[in-house]
Amino acid sequence: MPCVCFRKCDVVNRGFSGYNTRWAKVILPRLMGTSAAAQSTVAVTIFFGANDSALKDVNPQQHVPLEEYAANLTSMVHYLKSIDITEDRIILITPPPLQESAWEKECLAKGDKLNRRNATTGEYAQACVRVARDCGTGVLDLWTLMQKDEVREHEVGFGTTKHIILHRGANSSAALSLQQHLQV
């Protein structure tokens, strides 16, 4: 996105590693507190669900029940609307898919159990799409885009950490979809 937005707008990242919608909902008013800030805001993306969808019995600290996740997303959209950010400037982003076998290896290497499942994450992605539809916002469905037939996954080791590299087609599809929402 930096290439697309170059000299057109400033991109301000307010990501919080490990957060879920329960915690994000609480801090959102501190991040975007006034209608004055909304005047210069071109778009707001809300990208949660990977931590919310953690398995309750294995990772209860991050897990948020599906219904609460949807309610939290709705609450964040309503808050943004209350400070004059219109729904056409709000984009919800679904959690991305999980490559379970690679994630399980990482968990086991740390002495932990597998704490997420792709099917569960998919349920959260579907809930995100429903909230976007119900609230009238845009949605970038990463979970679906990144699992299209042309996606090929490769595990690449970087020291003790493994990263999943997705085929350029999936990344390009996601970037193009976001660009269309932003109309840049």
From TrEMBL:
Single GO MF descriptor: 1-alkyl-2-acetylglycerophosphocholine esterase activity
SGNH hydrolase-type esterase domain mapped to chain residues: 10-155
Phylogenetic placement of the source organism: Eukaryota, Metazoa, Chordata, Craniata, Vertebrata
InterPro entries linked to this entry: Iah1-like, SGNH_hydro, SGNH_hydro_sf
EC number(s) on file: 3.1.1.47
Protein name: 1-alkyl-2-acetylglycerophosphocholine esterase
SUPFAM superfamilies: SGNH hydrolase
Catalyses which reaction(s): 1-O-hexadecyl-2-acetyl-sn-glycero-3-phosphocholine + H2O = 1-O-hexadecyl-sn-glycero-3-phosphocholine + acetate + H(+); a 1-O-alkyl-2-acetyl-sn-glycero-3-phosphocholine + H2O = a 1-O-alkyl-sn-glycero-3-phosphocholine + acetate + H(+); 1-O-hexadecyl-2-acetyl-sn-glycero-3-phosphate + H2O = 1-O-hexadecyl-sn-glycero-3-phosphate + acetate + H(+)
Signal peptide region: none
